Every structure is written in structure tokens, then in C-alpha cells.
Task: structure prediction
Amino acid sequence: MHLDVRIPLGLLFLLLGLILVGFGFTSDPAIYVQHLGQNVNLFWGTVFALFGAVMLLLTRRKKSG
Amino acid sequence: MQSLLPLPLLATAGGGNVHDVMLKLAGVDYLILGIYFVFVIAIGWILRKYLKTSADFFESGRSLPAWVCALGFIGANLGAQEVIGMAASGAKYGIATCHFYWVGAIPAMVFVGVFMMPFYYGSKARSVPEYLKLRFDEKTRAFNALSFAFMTVFSSGISMHALALLLNSILHLDYNLCILVSSLIVLIYIVTGGLTSAIYNEVLQFFLIVFGLLPLVLLGLKDIGGWSGLMTQLQGYSAAQGMPGAWSHSWAYMGSEKSNPMGIEWFGLAMGLGFVLSFGYWCTDFLVVQRAMAAKDMSAARRTPILAAIPKMMFPALVILPGMLAVALYQKGAGFQLPAAADGSPNYNMVVPAMLAQYFPNGMLGIGLTALMASFMSGMAGNVTAFNTVFTYDLYQSYLHKGATDAHLVRVGRITTVVGLLISVACAYAARQFNNIMDMLQLVFGFVNAPLFAIFLLGMFWRRATGHGAFFGLLLGTLSAMIFNGLTLPVGEAAGIKGGWMGAHWFFHSSMAQNFWMAIFAFGACFAGTIIISLATSPNKTDDQLRGLVYSLTEKIRDTGTRWYARPATLGGVVLAGAIVLNIIFW
Result:
């Protein structure tokens, strides 16, 4: 029985997502406006973290099932 | 082993001494890159306790689910050529670059899943060269194993060189440091975790590349005014290049080699790329086939390449669109400049870094850079795992130490990984010093690869094919490729490495057209040669020995335990239909 690949995958994306969200909240708005008015770190950080969380939830579902 | 795109496009990635694209990283970007490195090493470290036998180390114990193998299958192919090279081609050729996917990959991936995996997986061969030994003879296996081993370490070295050159160019990182860090990380996670570690990391790399490039494409599309805005700008760009419409259609301008930027006509494209080269790569290259052979059962092994074909079909949106967006933004005059080489011509290899610099703030920039690193490292790791398996099973165990114990083979596999990476490092430095030698080696590998699919096709579907027929057919095909190259030349090129060294008698509109037609001729010569020599020699295998290796002598798989929609034939049909629809939409 191998390690479930969704565990490192989920953890990696959850961690990267949280870092991006944190950085998105604290960084100077001028940086992201200059680079089409969206805070891409905040938006994509949320997407990454959600993807990571879903992956981890899938591994839990498998264990309980 | 290399992908279908010529390597020189990459060997110059970074543009030599040009520093026209510069990424300014912040602490958060380095943190993201560092976390990724920790994860890939940790995966290898955690998996080491599961490695008990040589089958665990080299074949993942044939225990992985289809979806993991499928992502490994596509991840191993997601090397630098895919991310940097395809974006460069997107800028250079427009939508026609999609032919490398919808014509040059999908049909072959479906074919290997439906028709060829039963022989690879069912024969219990541990590698593609070993299948050749079982089907033909020892000399055919040795020829394939030796050429494959050389090609894999060479390709790994080129990946390493391209990565170091790119990072040196866009971040001013020291070339030697880049080589050391990238090779050390790959070494640690392969030596500790074997093939499973490589496949698991390819899964991570796949998602990193998807999530690293998707925001880039969406932001670029938003900036250019959506799909219609992109098409409008590409129409203008095509007209400015003297080929109106050619950048925004895949087939419409393939009637003549003069009317499209690829310089190839439809038959050369469909036969050369769509049949000979793509089937030769996807159906016989152990780098990708190894991922399918790690699957837990026959059904999973057959579904692996077909499931991989689904994201592969969509990948042009991620890897080709950035290049198309770059030329469209340049055409729009929105302040975006195409990166320039030393001579002032556009340096298409720098399109992805230029787009990252344009759209990503610090934070996302770290993700984009990590995606680039992941693509280079997956290419290196894929080659190294294929190399250590072929060397250990097909060369060491077969010729040097036939009675080696299982534990001894694992030790040899680990030592081979170290040696393979050291040779790759040497190749990287050789590529840096002697670009012409690398071009020459690439050319020789092209000669060997072009006819390869013919002997697999005949071997699997014609039981009369003999060992002598396959071996000498392969030599004849390789010789034909060499002579074809010597007699032909792309227009505007000097005789030499590009061809014409026997006197240029025929001219092609582009190197790509010359390569596609060379493959057609080499395949034809090998196919005919194998048939003629096989008929002239007596069979060297009995029907009993060929059972499980040849279509007509193998019991057909019924797939009764699998639901109808999950069967390889059904999945393959759906995937092929999808590829046809995409070809029609972007005609």
C-alpha cells in the first residue's frame, strides 16, 4: 500500500494557497493594480487553497468509506 | 527521450547572452519555490520504506491506479519542450501548433492504450527493449536498449542545460548553481523513492503547471479583449507576415507549404507527424510507456494513455495560447514587446518568461517560476527513471551479471541513477560549449527513431516477422533516414548539419517539413525491409513463444468486469471524437 498521492498534492496546494492569500492581503495594492486591477494573489490563492482542501477531503472520504 | 518538437528550439532557451526579460523575485517567490523543493524531496523520502524489491523500485510494483499513471504519463512528457517550446511555436506558427496535439499525439495515445498495452503489460516484459527481445531476438533488444539509454541521458542533459540557461538569463542565477541544485533534487527523490516517487512528483508537477499557466492565459485573454480580440490581432499579424489568416487556422492553409508558417503541406503533416513520428514516440518510447506499465492491472494499464489523452487534448489552451497571446499583444501595440535575440530577431523561447513578467505580481510569479522548474525537472526525472530501468534490466542483468539477486539489482538501479545524472551533467556542459555536437547527436537520434515504429507494428500484428527482419529492417530504415538527410536541404540553409551533405537534390520549405518527410521515407524503408528479410529468413520463434506478444496468437481481452463507459475502446472512441471536433472547430 503506497502513500495516497492526494495527501502531498492537497497539502502543497493548501499551503501555497494560504501563502498567496496572506501575501495578497498584505502587499501594496499598487503592485497588483499595475500588473488589470485584480488582486491575482488573493483570487488564485483562494483557488489553490480550495483545490488543496478538496484533495485532502477526498482522501478522508476514501478512508471512512 | 525527446518529444516531437526539435530540440534546438530549446537548446537556445534563454537566448544566449541576451538579458531582455528579467524577473524580479521577492522573498515570497523564493519561499514558494523552496516549499516545492521540500515537497518533492519529502515524497521520495516517505516512499523509500515501501521499496522492498526491484519491481517496487523500477516498476512501482505494478500497483498504481489508472488516474495516477495517466497524470504521470502526461507529466513525464511535460518537459521543457512542452512549456517553453510549445509557447514558442504558438508565437511562431499560431493555431497550427495544435497539430502536435490533435494530430501528433491523441490518435497514437488511443492506439497504444487500446491495441499495444495488452502486449506490453500482458507479456510481463519489464521494459520496451525487453518486449523486443521476447518478440524478436537479443540483437534487436540490444540495439534499442543502447540507443535508448544514450538518448535518455542526452535529453536529460539538454533539459538541465536549458533550465540553467533560462534561469541564468531571467534571474541572473549562476549556471553551475542551477545545474547542481536541479540535478541534486532529482537525484534525491529518484534514488530514495524510485519510479513511484517520479510518478507522484509528476502528478504534483502536472497540477503546478496547470495552475501556473492558467492564470497567465486568462489574464492575457482579458487584456487582449477575449477570443475575438485575439483572433482580430492574429489576423493583422498574419497579414503583416505575408500569410493572411494563417495564424488563426489549423488546417485551412495546409494546402500548400508556401501558405503557412510551418512550411509543410497536409500529407507530410498527417503522415509524417500524425502517423510515423507520433506513433513512434507515444507507442514505443519507454519514457511514457513505463508509466502505463506501473498500473495495478491490465484494465488500468490500457486506460492510462487514453485518460492521459483527455488533458493532453486541452493542453494547447495552456501552453500554445501564451505564445499566440504574446504576438497578439505585440500586434496590438499595447506596450508589450516580443523578446529579442542578439541579432534583433524575435526570441520566441522567452515568450513565457516575458508573459510572466507582464502579468504576474510577486507571489504568483513564484508559482509561475515553480511551474517552469517543475516542467524541466519532470523531463529530467522521466528520462533518468527510464534510463536506470533499461540499463539495469536490459544491459546489466542481460549481459554483465545474469545471476544478480533482487537486492543487487536495486543497488545497481540506484548507482545507475547517480551515474546517469552525472552523464547528464556532462551533456549539459557539452551543450554549453559545443552546440554543433549537440545538434549532430540530435540528428543521429532522429535517424534511429524515425523507423522504429515499423518493427513494433509488424512485430505485434504480423506473426511472420522475424528477428533478422526486425534488426536489419531497423538498420535499413536508419540508413535511409541518413541518406535522405544527406540529399535534402531546407530552403535558405547551408549544406551541413541541416542536410545536403551528399549534395542537395531536393529542397523543403522548412526543417520541419524535411524531418517529417525523412520520417516517412525511413518508416517506409524499414517496413518494406523488415517484410522482405522476414520472408527470406526462417521464423526464429514458435507460435507458443509468440503467444501474448502477437495479436493473432493472443486471446482477446473482453473487459467484462468493466462498465461499458469505462472500457478502453469506449474511452478511446470518445477521445478520438473529441480530437476530431477540435480539428473541425479550429479548421
About this structure: Chain A touches chain B through 28 residues (CB under 8 Å). The helical segments of chain A are 6-26, 29-34, 40-64. Chain A is about 80% helix and 0% strand.
